[in-house]
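Title: Comparing notes on inverse folding

I've been comparing how different people in this forum approach sequence design from structure. To keep things fair, I'm posting one structure and asking everyone to reply with a full sequence. Here's the target:
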């Protein structure tokens, strides 16, 4: 359970940082971090969280490479952020 909380906290910290930077500033560094966090989610068998992270990763890569605008990333990011926020609230 402690590992779950740590993963959720890392995602919460990352999402707050990205909000401050702006979604258009999504970078390859963000994809690398999300890939690591996704590996942890899979290891902890957090399947829905894995799906949410993959959605952000796919949309984020396209934005980072200049292949797409950030509307899809916004949608995926909001879904992930809402899940993380609810998880943080339920832990307290």
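Reply #1:
Here's my take.
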């Amino acid at each position: 359970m402690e590992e779950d909380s740590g993963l959720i906290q890392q995602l919460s910290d990352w999402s707050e940082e990205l909000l401050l930077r702006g979604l258009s500033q999504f970078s390859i560094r963000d994809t690398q971090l999300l890939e690591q966090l996704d590996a942890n989610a899979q290891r902890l068998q957090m399947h829905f969280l894995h799906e949410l992270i993959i959605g952000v990763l796919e949309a984020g890569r396209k934005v980072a490479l200049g292949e797409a605008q950030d509307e899809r990333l916004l949608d995926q990011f909001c879904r992930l952020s809402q899940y993380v926020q609810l998880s943080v609230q339920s832990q307290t």
